[in-house]
């Protein structure tokens, strides 16, 4: 036989609810007598009502979950505190056991780290049981002491006592653990009973919350409708008052006095100013004409000043050109005079050379020179 789970039941309920809603919708849509053109207001109201019920149910379920979470947190805190207390008791028992039954004096190697070893030191080789007789001292060898049997028996008795003591402590710890487990089981049963009782109280509280939410939603709907009516009436009154104020106000009537500024008559309020008056426009045009005439006068003065500067610059250029031409003519005349002087000096020099040649010829003729000598003279003359 198959077991039915709560999840399966919930899914079947949702499926049946959806099927029923679909059938109701089909009856409303395909019924020509009850169908309303433009929208199904009844279905919309039902959907709004269902949505509000769903929201109230979700809110109550969330509050229930929150209560369960708080209860579980409390239970977890109690269990955590109990676990910490048990751990603390166990640590304290272990510490007490170590302090009472595992003292440093009972250790086998305590004589190696005894802080009072120097005070307890005895002369060398007092007896066979002297612990200071080491192997290097060669005072006593293994198995040659006189109290070997008594020492062995004492050690066996001591080991038996330790074993019995550990067994008793283990039995005691086991009994404590069993008592703690029984106490924990009883506490869990009490918690389960308390949780079932709280669950019943929660179901009762959920029903009361659903009824209260339904009543609250009905009152809220009535208050919302009344508030909307009041707001609509107030809005209409405000609109009428605003329209009357705008019609009688300075903004639409374009009163020029509303643009007057409190800082002086020459200033205006920009967001209220409707433009300049006819007198102000005439004054602006007159000022513009005066500015144009002043600008033309300044341009004429600048043009006359530029012409004057151009005339002066041309005169200076003409004077400079005449000076350059005069200087060039002077240089040409100086060059011609120098050339004539050079020609005159050259002619004088040639005449002097010709006079010296004639005198030398007379001397040669007197001395009857040879033909070779005349050839040499002609070469030098050249």
UniProtKB/TrEMBL annotation:
InterPro entries: RIB43A (IPR008805). Residues 219-236 have a biased composition (Basic and acidic residues). Keywords: Cell projection, Cilium, Coiled coil, Cytoplasm, Cytoskeleton, Flagellum. Transmembrane segments: none annotated. Its main location: cytoplasm. Signal peptide: none annotated. Pfam families: RIB43A. It is found in: Cytoplasm, Cytoskeleton, Flagellum axoneme. Residues 219-240 are annotated as: Disordered. Microtubule inner protein component of sperm flagellar doublet microtubules. PANTHER family: RIB43A-LIKE WITH COILED-COILS PROTEIN 2, RIB43A-RELATED. Belongs to the RIB43A family. This is RIB43A-like with coiled-coils protein 2 isoform X2. It comes from Heterocephalus glaber. The gene is Ribc2.
């Amino acid at each position: 036989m198959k077991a039915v789970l709560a999840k399966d039941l919930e899914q079947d309920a949702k499926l049946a609810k959806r099927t029923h809603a679909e059938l109701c919708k089909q009856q409303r849509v395909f019924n020509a007598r009850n169908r309303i053109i433009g929208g199904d207001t009844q279905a919309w109201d039902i959907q709004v009502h269902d949505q509000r019920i769903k929201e109230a149910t979700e809110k109550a379920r969330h509050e229930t979950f929150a209560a369960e979470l708080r209860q579980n947190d409390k239970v977890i805190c109690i269990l955590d505190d109990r676990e910490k207390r048990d751990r603390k008791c166990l640590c304290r028992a272990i510490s007490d056991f170590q302090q009472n039954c595992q003292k440093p004096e009972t250790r086998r190697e305590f004589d190696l780290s005894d802080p009072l070893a120097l005070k307890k030191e005895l002369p060398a080789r007092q007896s066979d049981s002297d612990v200071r007789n080491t192997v290097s001292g060669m005072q006593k060898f293994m198995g040659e002491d006189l109290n070997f049997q008594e020492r062995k028996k004492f050690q066996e008795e001591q080991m038996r006592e330790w074993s019995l003591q550990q067994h008793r402590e283990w039995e005691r710890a086991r009994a404590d653990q069993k008592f703690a487990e029984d106490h924990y089981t009883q506490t869990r049963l009490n918690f389960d009973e308390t949780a079932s009782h709280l669950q019943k109280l929660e179901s009762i509280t959920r029903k009361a919350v659903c009824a209260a939410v339904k009543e609250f939603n009905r009152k809220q709907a009535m208050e919302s409708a009344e508030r909307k009516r009041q707001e609509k009436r107030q809005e209409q009154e405000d609109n009428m008052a605003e329209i009357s104020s705008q019609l009688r106000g300075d903004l639409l009537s374009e009163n020029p006095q509303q643009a007057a500024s409190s800082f002086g008559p020459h200033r205006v309020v920009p967001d209220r100013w409707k433009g300049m008056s006819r007198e102000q426009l005439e004054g602006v045009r007159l000022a513009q004409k005066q500015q144009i005439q002043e600008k033309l006068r300044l341009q004429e003065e600048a043009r006359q000043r530029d012409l004057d500067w151009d005339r002066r610059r041309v005169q200076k250029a003409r004077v400079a050109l005449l000076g350059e031409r005069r200087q060039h003519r002077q240089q040409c005349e100086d060059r011609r005079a120098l050339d004539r002087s050079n020609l005159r000096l050259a002619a004088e020099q040639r005449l002097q050379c010709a006079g010296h040649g004639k005198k030398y010829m007379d001397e040669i003729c007197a001395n009857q020179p040879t033909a070779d000598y005349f050839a040499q003279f002609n070469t030098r003359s050249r």
